[in-house]
Design brief:
This protein is an alpha+beta fold and 198 residues long. The chain has two helices and nine strands, in the order αββββββββαβ. The protein has a single domain, classed as PEBP-like (Phosphatidylethanolamine-binding Protein, Alpha-Beta Complex).
Protein backbone atom coordinates (compact mmCIF):
# COMPACT_ATOMS: atom_id res chain seq x y z
CA UNK A 1 0.00 0.00 0.00
CA UNK A 2 1.55 3.41 -0.94
CA UNK A 3 2.69 5.54 1.97
CA UNK A 4 1.51 9.11 2.45
CA UNK A 5 4.55 10.57 0.72
CA UNK A 6 4.04 8.39 -2.35
CA UNK A 7 0.44 9.54 -2.47
CA UNK A 8 1.57 13.18 -2.23
CA UNK A 9 4.01 12.63 -5.11
CA UNK A 10 1.34 10.98 -7.25
CA UNK A 11 -1.09 13.82 -6.48
CA UNK A 12 1.57 16.44 -7.35
CA UNK A 13 2.28 14.79 -10.70
CA UNK A 14 -1.44 14.52 -11.48
CA UNK A 15 -1.92 18.21 -10.69
CA UNK A 16 0.99 19.15 -12.94
CA UNK A 17 -0.34 17.00 -15.78
CA UNK A 18 -3.83 18.49 -15.53
CA UNK A 19 -2.60 22.08 -15.24
CA UNK A 20 -0.29 21.71 -18.22
CA UNK A 21 -2.95 19.99 -20.32
CA UNK A 22 -5.39 22.83 -19.58
CA UNK A 23 -2.74 25.40 -20.44
CA UNK A 24 -1.89 23.70 -23.71
CA UNK A 25 -5.53 23.31 -24.64
CA UNK A 26 -6.27 26.97 -23.95
CA UNK A 27 -3.12 28.44 -25.44
CA UNK A 28 -2.12 25.97 -28.13
CA UNK A 29 1.48 26.09 -29.28
CA UNK A 30 1.63 29.86 -29.20
CA UNK A 31 2.91 29.89 -32.80
CA UNK A 32 -0.21 29.10 -34.83
CA UNK A 33 -3.64 29.79 -33.39
CA UNK A 34 -5.24 27.71 -36.17
CA UNK A 35 -3.30 24.54 -35.33
CA UNK A 36 -5.63 21.78 -34.16
CA UNK A 37 -5.03 20.64 -30.58
CA UNK A 38 -3.36 17.23 -30.50
CA UNK A 39 -3.82 15.51 -27.09
CA UNK A 40 -1.25 12.83 -27.91
CA UNK A 41 1.54 15.36 -28.43
CA UNK A 42 0.52 17.21 -25.25
CA UNK A 43 1.02 14.28 -22.88
CA UNK A 44 3.70 14.80 -20.23
CA UNK A 45 6.51 12.26 -20.46
CA UNK A 46 7.81 10.28 -17.49
CA UNK A 47 11.50 10.68 -16.76
CA UNK A 48 13.68 8.37 -14.71
CA UNK A 49 16.02 10.08 -12.25
CA UNK A 50 18.33 8.38 -9.74
CA UNK A 51 21.60 8.65 -7.87
CA UNK A 52 24.60 6.33 -7.77
CA UNK A 53 24.95 7.27 -4.08
CA UNK A 54 21.69 5.70 -2.82
CA UNK A 55 18.64 3.81 -4.06
CA UNK A 56 15.13 5.24 -4.25
CA UNK A 57 13.65 5.21 -0.74
CA UNK A 58 16.96 4.37 0.98
CA UNK A 59 18.89 6.40 3.51
CA UNK A 60 20.88 9.34 2.14
CA UNK A 61 24.60 8.97 3.00
CA UNK A 62 25.76 11.41 5.67
CA UNK A 63 28.26 13.14 3.35
CA UNK A 64 25.33 14.69 1.44
CA UNK A 65 23.73 16.10 4.62
CA UNK A 66 24.38 18.87 7.13
CA UNK A 67 26.04 16.29 9.39
CA UNK A 68 28.66 15.58 6.73
CA UNK A 69 30.18 17.56 3.88
CA UNK A 70 26.79 18.98 2.81
CA UNK A 71 27.66 18.34 -0.84
CA UNK A 72 25.12 17.64 -3.58
CA UNK A 73 24.79 13.97 -4.55
CA UNK A 74 25.52 12.67 -8.06
CA UNK A 75 22.40 12.52 -10.23
CA UNK A 76 21.59 10.83 -13.55
CA UNK A 77 18.45 10.69 -15.66
CA UNK A 78 16.89 9.23 -18.78
CA UNK A 79 16.48 10.83 -22.20
CA UNK A 80 14.14 13.80 -22.31
CA UNK A 81 11.20 14.25 -24.72
CA UNK A 82 11.53 15.92 -28.09
CA UNK A 83 11.26 19.69 -27.85
CA UNK A 84 13.05 19.92 -24.49
CA UNK A 85 15.21 23.04 -24.32
CA UNK A 86 16.25 22.97 -20.67
CA UNK A 87 16.09 20.84 -17.52
CA UNK A 88 15.36 21.78 -13.90
CA UNK A 89 15.88 19.77 -10.72
CA UNK A 90 14.24 20.63 -7.38
CA UNK A 91 14.81 18.92 -4.01
CA UNK A 92 12.08 19.25 -1.38
CA UNK A 93 11.48 18.11 2.18
CA UNK A 94 7.69 17.64 2.47
CA UNK A 95 8.03 16.61 6.14
CA UNK A 96 9.33 19.97 7.38
CA UNK A 97 7.13 21.33 10.21
CA UNK A 98 6.69 24.67 8.43
CA UNK A 99 5.60 23.09 5.15
CA UNK A 100 7.55 22.09 2.05
CA UNK A 101 11.19 23.07 2.49
CA UNK A 102 13.24 23.57 -0.70
CA UNK A 103 16.84 22.32 -0.42
CA UNK A 104 17.92 22.85 -4.02
CA UNK A 105 16.75 24.50 -7.22
CA UNK A 106 19.05 24.00 -10.20
CA UNK A 107 17.71 25.08 -13.58
CA UNK A 108 18.58 25.88 -17.21
CA UNK A 109 20.58 22.66 -17.38
CA UNK A 110 21.27 22.10 -21.11
CA UNK A 111 18.78 19.68 -22.67
CA UNK A 112 21.54 17.29 -23.78
CA UNK A 113 22.82 16.80 -20.23
CA UNK A 114 22.11 13.41 -18.61
CA UNK A 115 23.86 13.74 -15.24
CA UNK A 116 25.20 16.10 -12.60
CA UNK A 117 28.37 15.13 -10.72
CA UNK A 118 28.58 15.36 -6.95
CA UNK A 119 29.64 18.53 -5.19
CA UNK A 120 28.13 21.33 -7.26
CA UNK A 121 29.57 24.72 -6.29
CA UNK A 122 27.54 27.10 -4.11
CA UNK A 123 27.37 29.70 -6.87
CA UNK A 124 24.53 31.08 -8.98
CA UNK A 125 26.26 30.25 -12.26
CA UNK A 126 27.48 26.73 -12.92
CA UNK A 127 28.76 25.10 -16.11
CA UNK A 128 27.26 26.27 -19.42
CA UNK A 129 23.83 27.86 -18.90
CA UNK A 130 23.09 26.05 -15.61
CA UNK A 131 21.94 28.26 -12.75
CA UNK A 132 21.04 27.78 -9.07
CA UNK A 133 18.49 29.64 -6.97
CA UNK A 134 18.46 30.61 -3.31
CA UNK A 135 17.08 27.75 -1.20
CA UNK A 136 14.87 27.91 1.89
CA UNK A 137 18.00 28.05 4.10
CA UNK A 138 18.71 31.35 2.28
CA UNK A 139 21.81 29.78 0.72
CA UNK A 140 22.71 29.57 -2.96
CA UNK A 141 22.59 26.07 -4.42
CA UNK A 142 22.37 22.83 -2.47
CA UNK A 143 21.88 22.51 1.29
CA UNK A 144 21.59 18.91 2.41
CA UNK A 145 19.07 17.16 4.67
CA UNK A 146 19.08 18.56 8.20
CA UNK A 147 15.89 17.48 9.99
CA UNK A 148 15.27 18.06 13.70
CA UNK A 149 17.06 15.56 15.94
CA UNK A 150 15.40 12.13 15.96
CA UNK A 151 12.98 12.87 13.08
CA UNK A 152 13.25 10.93 9.82
CA UNK A 153 12.33 13.06 6.81
CA UNK A 154 11.88 12.22 3.16
CA UNK A 155 13.77 14.24 0.54
CA UNK A 156 12.23 14.20 -2.93
CA UNK A 157 14.32 14.89 -6.04
CA UNK A 158 12.10 16.17 -8.87
CA UNK A 159 13.24 16.58 -12.48
CA UNK A 160 11.45 18.64 -15.14
CA UNK A 161 12.05 18.69 -18.90
CA UNK A 162 11.06 22.16 -20.08
CA UNK A 163 10.01 23.63 -23.41
CA UNK A 164 12.25 26.65 -22.87
CA UNK A 165 14.92 27.97 -20.49
CA UNK A 166 13.75 29.93 -17.47
CA UNK A 167 14.26 33.68 -17.85
CA UNK A 168 15.07 34.59 -14.25
CA UNK A 169 17.25 37.11 -12.43
CA UNK A 170 20.34 35.94 -10.56
CA UNK A 171 18.84 36.43 -7.08
CA UNK A 172 15.79 34.19 -7.58
CA UNK A 173 14.29 32.08 -4.82
CA UNK A 174 12.80 28.60 -4.82
CA UNK A 175 9.30 30.06 -5.22
CA UNK A 176 10.38 32.03 -8.27
CA UNK A 177 11.65 28.86 -9.93
CA UNK A 178 8.45 26.94 -9.13
CA UNK A 179 6.32 29.73 -10.62
CA UNK A 180 8.49 29.89 -13.76
CA UNK A 181 7.93 26.18 -14.48
CA UNK A 182 4.22 26.63 -15.15
CA UNK A 183 3.18 25.96 -18.71
CA UNK A 184 6.64 24.71 -19.73
CA UNK A 185 6.73 21.12 -18.43
CA UNK A 186 7.15 18.43 -21.13
CA UNK A 187 8.28 15.63 -18.82
CA UNK A 188 8.78 14.96 -15.12
CA UNK A 189 9.95 12.30 -12.69
CA UNK A 190 11.17 11.85 -9.12
CA UNK A 191 12.89 9.65 -6.59
CA UNK A 192 13.53 10.13 -2.88
CA UNK A 193 15.86 9.40 0.00
CA UNK A 194 15.38 9.34 3.74
CA UNK A 195 17.47 10.88 6.49
CA UNK A 196 17.39 10.96 10.30
CA UNK A 197 20.01 12.60 12.50
CA UNK A 198 21.46 10.46 15.25
Amino acid sequence: MPNSHSQIRIFSFTAIVLATAIFLTACGSGNDSDTEFDPESSLIATLDISSAAFEDGDSIPVEYTCDGNNTSPPLRWSDVPSGTRSIAILVDDPDAPTGIFRHWSVYNIPSGTRSLPTGQASTIKLKDSTRQAINTFDNIGYSGPCPPEGQEHEYVFFIYALSEPLDLDDDVTALDVSAALRGKVLGTGSFSGMYVRR
